[in-house]
Amino acid sequence: MAANGAAKPAMDGATTRRPRLGSMSRPPFPWFGMDIGGTLAKLVYYEPTDITPDEAEAERDSLKVIRKYLTSNVAYGKEGIRDTHLEMKNLALCGRKGNLHFIRFPTTGMERFLHMGHEKNFSSLHTTFCATGGGAYRFEEDFLRIAGLQLNKLDELDCLIHGIHYIDSSKFNGSSECYWYKNPTREDLCEKMPFDFRNPYPYIVVNIGSGVSILAVYSQDDYKRISGTSLGGGTFLGLCCLLTGCDTFEDAIEMAANGNSTNVDKLVKDIYGGDYTRFALSGETVASSFGNMHIKEKREAASKEDLARATLVTITNNIGSIARMCALTEKIERVVFVGNFLRVNPISMKLLADAMDFWSSGQLKALFLEHEGYFGAVGALLQLTKTSPFDVPIDQ
Amino acid sequence: MCAERSYARSISLPPDEVFRNLRNAKRFAMDIGGSLAKLAYYSTVERSRAYDDHHLYEIQEQNELGARIHFVKFEMTYFEKCLDFIKENLVSSHGEMMGKVVKATGGGSHKYTNLIRDKLGLECDKEDEMQCLIQGCIFVLRNITNEAFEYQRHSPQPYKFQTMDADLFPFLLVNIGSGVSIVKVESHDKYERIGGSSIGGGSFLGLGCKLTKAKNFDELLQLASQGDHRNVDMLVRDIYGGAYSALGLPGELIASSFGKMVSAKDGEGQEFEEQDIAKSLLHTISNDIGQISCLYAQLHGLRKIYFGGFFIRGHPVTMHTITYAINFWSRGTLQALFLRHEGYLGAIGAFLKGAEEDDSEKYCWGENYAGSSGLHSTSPPPDFIPRDRTASFDRFELDRLERPLVSLPALLDPPSYFPDTVDLTEDPDARKYWLDCFEEALGKVAARAVASQPSRDDAEMRAQQFMAKYNKRLETLREHPFAYGSLTVRSLLDTREQCLNEFHFADPYQHIKQQENEAALRILPERLQHLDSLEFRARQVALAEGLLAGNVFDWGAKAITRLMEGDDSFGFEEAMSKLQARPWLVDDLDPWLERLQDHPHKCALIFADNSGLDIILGVFPFAREMVLRGTQVILCANSKPALNDVTYGELKILAKKVAELCPTIRTALSEGHLKVMASGAASPCLDLSRIDEMLSQECQRRGVDLVVLEGMGRAIHTNYHAAFSCESLKLAVLKNKWLANRLGGDVFSVIFKYTKGSKVEGKTPSKNDIGTQQPRKSPETDR
Questions:
Q1: Where do the segments described as Disordered lie (chain A) (predicted)?
Q2: Which residues on A lie below 8 Å from B107 (Cβ)?
Q3: ipTM of the complex
Q4: Any idea what DSSP says for residue B731?
Q5: Number of other residues whose CB lies within 10 A of the CB of residue B170
Q6: Under the phi-then-psi rule, with left for phi > 0, alpha for psi from -120 to 50, and beta for the rest, what region is B67?
Q7: A372 alpha carbon, distance to own chain's centre
Q8: Residues of A whose CB is below 8 A from B259
Q9: What does the pLDDT read at residue A61?
Q10: Which stretches within B169-306 are classed as H helix?
């Protein structure tokens, strides 16, 4: 998910109102939506399960090939992965019934992806392909040149918001899409709790991709980007790669789970010998992230796992701190964290939950969504089907 | 980084100059940081001062004691050695130190408490770091002119110094040490740590040491200054191929710090160096701190953010990034401010803690330019050469002023008042001219200083030292014009006075002043008689011309020095004849005469300039006329000597002498219609935001409705643009050819500027008639 370091000054004050998406009409299959971020490309594929025999007969071979290829595999090439646990079954979309598949691969693999599209004769099926994220702009020419595909480029924030509302209103295979953490700091008592997101406004969205975008959402089509930071998932992984030599996000998270950041960070007690009572700071508070690493002995004693953990905690707490202040400034209590940084990353989610809880004395609530990083791609798919997500009746 | 003791032993201490006056030290405080130590000590210094005998006009030099606080900043590697040095030099005052406590603050204070106790034999109290910092910050903002500045890297003059802020509170103080503390300061004793961040200087240093070969902060900054973060960070254009135009995010904006390092292993992003890593790290951290500070300021409705802590240390790249972040996130509504003495805040605070019994906070303190190192650009140059040993000892000295200094009540808008007419930091031509000018004049100044102390054998030697010191200072200022705040003619003059004092030349003009005063007193009766014989209008013209003619005498001006040294008999009449013929360069005489037809002023405040003809034949007759019109007069003079300006001490005597010759003055003095007061200044120029509190109160009490500023220093170099809420007269003869030309006139051109009081809030006069490149006549000239 492409995220950006900063808000646009000129946009401020004026809330951007987005027009509703168009009315119903049905595009030809296959139905894709894509979100090409700085680090990861996300692809959602709608597999119709109500194909009539007539349809099947008329269907072109290439379409069948693509459907079979995507639905019968869980991994594509070296790095493409289908998140089967996120698959949404029997989903009604645009008058059809089907399954929604969620696929991701590193943005560095875009060229290979396009070559595959060329091999599978993608361009013969239909001429437009809905994509969002920065990559939609960056790779527009490549789409046309390599795969013969004309891109329909979409705004990533529009897609993100529409995606969130569509997925949430659709229910996730009967269970809740949105959840929060009860007792996030207590290993033994921590519980994932469903959250009723039917009447969410206003809320803050913190989208943590390579960087971080922070939006304030006041209604279905009334939102603005209020802030962001360049210290995001890309910073976590980039620093981890440099510090530990790891290759992947999964490795980095795995290492972090087994590390201890207090070997790397300087705590308040390291400076004051205990709590800093004058300013009510507990001795366990991190005073300086990586603050022990200029000391040779400590530098040598810190393990890769410790470094990975410290990086994760530093980046997460920083995001939490900025998100919290944005929420306070906007006077909004619900803060929804999304983005692929949270994938397989309960450490960060619990830290964020605690940060919202602790620093606001329970006034703020950190919320999470099961489909973490896929909302932009879903939003792009919705644009393809020209289905307004809000045409879907929401259970009141 | 702690001191490596074996290494410390091999380091020899720099010359004596570093721990000046240590033998007279009375009290110590220390701020012990990770890599730097700051020592503060209070001492009394002997200052020679010319005293006037109260019965006869005779001058003697006497020594008096003045209070001074010395601050020395040095690397921790010298710490132990410095303690030894202090111990050795404290023998004389050790008795006095007994039972006193060293106040210590800073991260390293608990580690070194025992060492301090053992070495110095003094008890050591730890003081809270944040509290010291906050108190230090308030102290410098209240006492030091041009303490705070904005940093605008791409402007020709990157340092924008702030005038002393009358509305200091509330403000946000962001201290960037290992971590970041964010404190909201509402008053002297009301402040709160509202937040912080663990991503601070320690993170920069820690990650930097881990990711590069750099071993310390300076090396890391050195690397950073050579790097390009774009090889490391993922920019908006790396994601979008260009700008994200829908949100107006430029392509160069950093989308993800270190984002390019993710794919580094694939062999695609291998084109980065450790310099790039260091640069990216500096950017990431400065930006993050800027953003978080901004969010806190907005949340608490604060407009001013002062940054301090070792992470800043005056480094241009750091200050630039933070300024950029604050501008960006606040859309220019918030101000990022830095402090010239940022590194000393903790030490100042600790010192104040220990000095509570001395009421240090009740006094006003002034920066001693002669004894302070000034702000140097600490950015390591591309060809990095380690600074020499003495340079790593940075000094800052404060002199206690005898009286509290406050703003003149008649100033129209104190917050927008800026005393100096031309900021030499902003004007390279003017800077070069004046620096050359002061350099050329140095020999003459030194010669005069020697001549003023004929009975002192060491005068010649001290004069040489004075010259060396001041020359070195001029050199520094050529290189770093911003080293002591705004560089102005005033600051150059004041620094010269302080350097003279430093080498015990208290008043080089004392004898000349005396001779001139005596000569002028002899002519006074004749002058008064002449004036009394004139009709009203002619008399007013003569009085105005008299003020100006007296002003031709000014030993500070080269032209006159030459004139006077060549001809002893050069007198008042000759001076009159030197004046430009009317219309003057700025000629408001007619409106002034017209005003005099009207009701008398309630009270006139006159700032006197030169001794001799000026004060006696120019100012006293003018004051006398005012008194005769029913106007009260406050006549004030410098509290301490500067050039040949009349001092308060001299003026008291002169007033008595004049009273003997003039019954009007005698009655006015005895009945209080004429009051002689000290201005609080010790300068040929005048900063009206720093005048003696008693004078300010007197002005308020008497309802001053006319301010008279006389002389180049007070009316041209400073205050030419000063706006008053009451009427004002600014009078001067331009004795400097360059300046006269710049103003569109010639040497001996006359400025007679009369302005009616302005009540318009926030209205500031235009600055275009002085200080611009194009000589341009001021509108008054066209009359």
A1: 1-22
A2: 271
A3: 0.90
A4: E
A5: 16
A6: beta
A7: 4
A8: 38-39, 210-211, 230, 232, 234-235, 238
A9: 83
A10: 201-211, 217-226, 236-240, 274-299
Q: Is the pLDDT of residue A337 over 60?
A: yes
- Which residue bears the tokens 């920019």? B235
d(CA A222, CA B678): 66
What is the distance of C-alpha B456 from the center of its chain? 32
Q: Are β-strands A80-82 and B586-587 bridged in parallel, bridged antiparallel, or unpaired? A: unpaired
Q: Which two tokens stand for residue A202?
A: 């206003």
Long-range contacts of B468-476 (CB under 8 A, 24+ apart): B469/B370, B469/B499, B469/B502, B469/B503, B470/B438, B470/B442, B470/B495, B470/B496, B470/B499, B471/B439, B471/B442, B473/B369, B473/B370, B473/B499, B474/B435, B474/B438, B474/B439, B476/B374, B476/B376
Contact B138, B188 (CB under 8 A): yes
Cis peptide before A30 (omega within 30 of 0): yes
Q: What gap in Å lies between CA B545 and CA B335, rounded to an integer?
A: 47
Three-state DSSP class for B619?
helix
Say which of A59, A79, A119, A156 is annotated catalytic: A156
DSSP state of B713: I
Q: Distance (Å) from the C-alpha of residue B258 to the closest C-alpha of chain A?
A: 5
Nearest to B72 by CA among B18, B142, B130, B126: B18
Of B178, B193, B257, the CB nearest to A230: B257
Task: Supply A175's token pair.
Answer: 């269970």
Shortest CB distance from A294 goes to which of B206, B242, B265?
A: B206
**Of the candidates A21, A15, A141, the residue with the CA atom closest to the CA atom of residue A384:** A21
- Rounded to 5 degrees, φ, ψ at A173 are 45, 40
Helix boundaries (H) for chain A: 53-58, 61-72, 110-119, 134-138, 140-147, 156-170, 233-244, 249-257, 268-272, 296-301, 304-330, 346-359, 375-385
Query: Given the DSSP bridges, would you call strands B603-607 and B632-637 parallel, antiparallel or unpaired?
Result: parallel
Q: Which two tokens stand for residue B543?
A: 């009085």
Helix (H, G, I), strand (E, B) or coil at B588: coil
User: Which chain B residues are within 8 Å of A271, Cβ to Cβ?
Assistant: 107, 178
Task: Give the Cα separation of A43 and B386 in Å (integer).
Answer: 55
Distances (CA, A) of B548 to B238, B544, B569, B682, B752: 69, 6, 19, 22, 9
Q: Which two tokens stand for residue B40?
A: 């503060």
pLDDT band at residue B309 under the 50/70/90 scheme = confident
pLDDT band (50, 70, 90) for residue B387: very low
What does the pLDDT look like over B103-131, one tens digit per residue?
Answer: 999 877 878 888 888 888 888 888 988 89
Closest Cα to residue B125, out of B92, B99, B155, B164?
B99
| Prior bond of B415 cis (ω within 30°) | no
Q: B632 is written with which tokens? A: 């009260």
Report residue A14 as tokens: 């004026």
Helices (H), ranges, A100-229: 110-119, 134-138, 140-147, 156-170
Q: Which two tokens stand for residue A307?
A: 């470094």
pLDDT score recorded for residue B1 = 35
Q: Please tell me the distance from the alpha carbon of residue B669 to that of residue A257, in angstroms, as a whole number.
A: 86
Binned at pLDDT 50, 70 and 90, residue A274 comes out as confident
Q: Determine the pLDDT at residue A391.
A: 40
Gyration radius of chain B's alpha carbons: 29
Closest by CA position to B195, among listed A324, A314, A362: A324
- CB-based contacts of B287: which residues, under 8 Å, 6+ apart? A5, A230, B254, B257, B321, B324, B325
Answer yes or no: A372 catalytic.
Answer: no
**B565 contacts B744 by C-beta, under 8 angstroms:** no
Least confident of A36-45, B71-80, B608-617: B71-80
Question: At residue B574, what are phi and psi to the nearest 5 degrees?
Answer: -60, -40
Per-residue tokens: B126: 């730890």
